[in-house]
Specification:
One of its GO terms (molecular function) is ATP hydrolysis activity. This protein has about 625 residues and is an alpha/beta fold. The chain has 22 helices and 20 strands. The protein has a six-stranded mixed beta sheet, sandwiched between helices. The protein has a six-stranded mixed beta sheet with strand order 14-17-18-12-19-20, with helices on both faces. The chain is globular and about 100 Å long.
Length: about 625
């Protein structure tokens, strides 16, 4: 039986008259990799904050196993004032961390006596190996200047340092709140690969659907103040959730039919039903209550309606002519030329700090270029969703802020909506519309920001990291809207699923002003990159023979399989074939649509097979490289 790491018992939390969740109970066990999913404003981050001890529940208990090592990755990491990067990674109060910190300071100070003493302490504690591990991990995360101050870091740099800090503490359970926010795609894939292969237990909130699908083995959904648990990854959750919704719909239909008949009976004159059994009257009221519960649940399924009209766009969109931009020695664009076509959809990717946001701000004239021209068509009407967030007065009510933008909104079928009606389509109830903007959650502000952009009926949408705060449901609907959008689109995003869904090609900002135009989705680009790297790393036959001939005999022998390794290689081949066959059988079973007996057990077995395959395939590859 799996070891219990964490128990949540009857947890309830509300803000005023707004109930987030009620009597929530679930457990986290060794080996669980749990993703928490819910709509914006329903309490995902609040739940994590309560578990982490940063907030108090109205009632209920959070019980950790005694002595459990817990690591917490917050959405917005904070470090000690004035701390360097290396010091931020050595915040744990342990002898080895204090020794490394002392040694690093002695190096900077140049005090020879202090340096000699700190070296002696490092020797006695084995600090050199730990320091090497810290530096190696930071290098993998793209951090090289370890003496830089943490006070002027970008959001992505701060998140990477916080990730290193958590990993170095070797926790048994990691709590992650939006771990992919502000990270570039390469680091997201590194973290995804690390967490997928690691045996650490996870409890996380994230909107990254590829991340959820590849890392998690359990999904917990908060819906209608309750939780629903699915023993599988994100793809499995989607299937089972749809089945749950269909079952609720069927139950509602049956209840309506029964209530129609029973209501007629209840409306008869009392004497007409004198002597009737009381249980029938009680059953009628029970059915009515159940109908109200289902109606409430269905209301929580309400979706954002993005059926908004776009303005007419002419044949001339924009032309970039010899654009150059630099900040000191840092070059953003170097002689960039491009003619943007009608209805074109471009994704922009690149490492953090390479200039993605600067690029789209130059296009709109927000940031001037150093030289060159942007020739924008007369009919172009930009709609800009900025990663900086909504620029509205926190002291204004939601409805007032939207009314200031427009008195009415026209949707695709020509219907005119008032601001209040329009906000309803973005899941802002009349009560929510009276809230002050400063009291909204991050996700609610993102939804309001999106509404304020789309209500202007733009024909050229520019989206800068739209997935950071939008929930998965809203993201899916935004993708549906963009699929039918009659205009142009540029999107900067680290969300691989989002890019794959909506863009036709990519601008890859490679640094030093270089922009590669790649024809395809992000997944196409990633596959092309892997193939190119594999080709570049493949030695030619002549060079291989020369290297082999020049190698010492001991080294050549070390690259051959031993008898034991040969037997292991043969057994691995057989095991992989058996596991692959079993995995395919479970895939067929899950996709058949029939009721599956012991679904929890089979789902657990599926995750176990996936883990075993990853481990055995990795070992098989290691051995296969030996001749």
């Amino acid at each position: 039986m799996a070891t219990s790491y964490l128990q949540i018992e009857n947890l309830t939390k509300s803000y005023g008259d707004r109930m987030l969740f009620s009597d929530v109970t679930f457990g986290v066990y060794e080996g669980d990799k749990i993703g928490i999913i819910a709509k914006n404003g329903t309490g995902k981050s609040t739940l994590l904050n309560i578990i982490a001890g940063n907030e108090s529940p109205d009632s209920g208990n959070v019980i950790f196993r005694n002595g459990l090592r817990v690591g917490i990755l917050e959405q917005s990491p904070r470090f000690a004032p004035g701390a360097s990067i290396i010091e931020a990674c050595l915040q744990e109060d342990s002898p080895i961390c204090r020794a490394i910190s002392r040694y690093e300071k002695a190096l900077v100070s140049g005090n020879e006596n202090e340096l000699n003493e700190s070296i002696h302490i490092m020797d006695s504690l084995g600090g050199w190996e730990y320091e090497d591990r810290v530096k190696q991990l930071l290098t993998q995360l793209g951090i090289t200047d370890l003496t830089a101050s943490t006070e002027h870091l970008s959001g992505g740099q701060a998140k990477r340092i916080a990730i290193a800090n958590v990993i170095l503490r070797e926790p048994e359970l990691i709590i992650l709140d939006e771990p992919t926010n502000h990270l570039d795609i390469q680091i997201i894939e590194w973290l995804e690969d690390y967490l997928r292969k690691s045996r650490v237990t996870l409890l996380m909130v994230t909107h990254d659907r590829y991340f959820l699908d590849r890392v998690t083995n359990k999904i917990i959904e908060i819906d209608n103040q309750q939780i629903f648990t699915y023993n599988g990854n994100y793809d499995y959750y989607l299937r089972r959730r749809q089945e749950r919704i269909e079952a609720l719909t069927a139950e509602m239909s049956k209840i309506k039919n029964t209530l129609r008949r029973e209501t007629e009976w209840m409306r008869r004159q009392p004497q007409a039903r004198a002597g009737k059994a009381q249980f029938r009257i009680d059953a009628y009221h029970a059915l009515s209550n159940r109908k109200n519960e289902l109606n409430s649940s269905r209301a929580s399924e309400g979706n954002v309606d993005l059926n908004v009209k776009s303005s007419y766009i002419g044949s001339k969109i924009f032309e970039a002519e010899h654009i150059n931009k630099a900040f000191g020695d840092k070059v953003i664009l170097r002689d960039f030329n491009y003619v943007f076509a009608r209805y074109e959809r471009v994704g922009i990717i690149g490492h953090n700090g390479v200039g993605k946001s600067t690029f789209i701000k130059m296009l709109q004239g927000i940031v001037p270029c150093d030289s060159g021209n942007w020739n924008v068509g007369e009919t172009v009407k930009f709609g800009y969703y900025s990663q900086d967030g909504i620029q509205l007065d926190d002291n204004k009510r939601v409805i007032d802020a939207i009314t200031d933008i427009a008195e009415e909104v026209i949707v695709n079928d020509g219907v005119h909506y008032s601001p209040m009606q329009f906000l309803n389509h973005f899941l802002f109830s009349p009560a929510d519309q009276q809230k002050y903007i400063g009291t909204l959650s991050g996700g609610e502000k993102a939804r309001l920001h999106l509404a304020s952009v789309l209500m202007r009926s733009p024909n050229f949408l520019i989206l800068d990291e739209p997935t950071n705060d939008l929930d998965i449901v809203t993201l899916g609907l935004l993708e549906e809207y963009l699929a039918g959008f009659k205009g142009c689109l540029i999107v900067v995003s680290h969300d691989r699923f989002f890019l794959d869904s909506i863009v036709d090609h990519l601008f890859v900002l490679e640094g030093d002003g270089v922009v590669r135009d790649f024809p395809g989705s992000y997944s196409d680009f990633r596959e092309w990159t892997r193939e190119r790297e594999a080709f570049d790393n493949t030695p030619t036959k002549g060079s291989t023979e020369k290297k082999t001939a020049n190698r010492p005999k001991r080294e050549r022998d070390a690259n051959k399989m031993t008898f034991k390794e040969q037997r292991e290689f043969e057994q691995l081949t057989k095991d992989i074939d058996v596991l692959t066959t079993e995995k395919k059988e479970l895939d067929t079973l899950f996709s058949s649509g029939v009721d599956v007996e012991d679904i929890a057990g089979k789902s657990a077995r599926y995750q176990e097979i996936q883990t075993l395959l990853d481990e055995k395939e990795m070992r098989w590859l290691e051995l296969s490289e030996k001749s």
